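job 3f2a | input accepted
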Amino acid sequence: MKMNFKKIIEFFSNPKRLFTFLIFFNVAVLAISLLAFQPSIAKAQEGFTPEIGMGLMAAAVAVAGSGIAAGIAVYGAATAGAAAMAERPGIATWVIILAGLGEGIAIYGLIIAIMILGTL
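job 3f2a | predicted structure (120 res):
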């Protein structure tokens, strides 16, 4: 059987048709995965306590907060560094160092999350 990709591309070129297909495809995948993993999900919830849930939430907040803060820090260092390097190209090393310090915030958040998960 020969595939006619031109017809497939024409079919999905309509955004409404593509959106409808993606919705039905996602619902089908979700339904199949829920049916396939339902016994293992029920078994996994037996040992789940509120303390574990709060610990997981704390780890998630640590990673998310530090990631957002690192993004803001690197954004500031990159924009100011690009402007400064336009005037003085010799300070490129300092710009990279300052951007690296901003990225360190995300690593610290990840370390805190690992420490929180280690206590659960």
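job 3f2a | The two ends are 55 Å apart (CA to CA).
job 3f2a | closed
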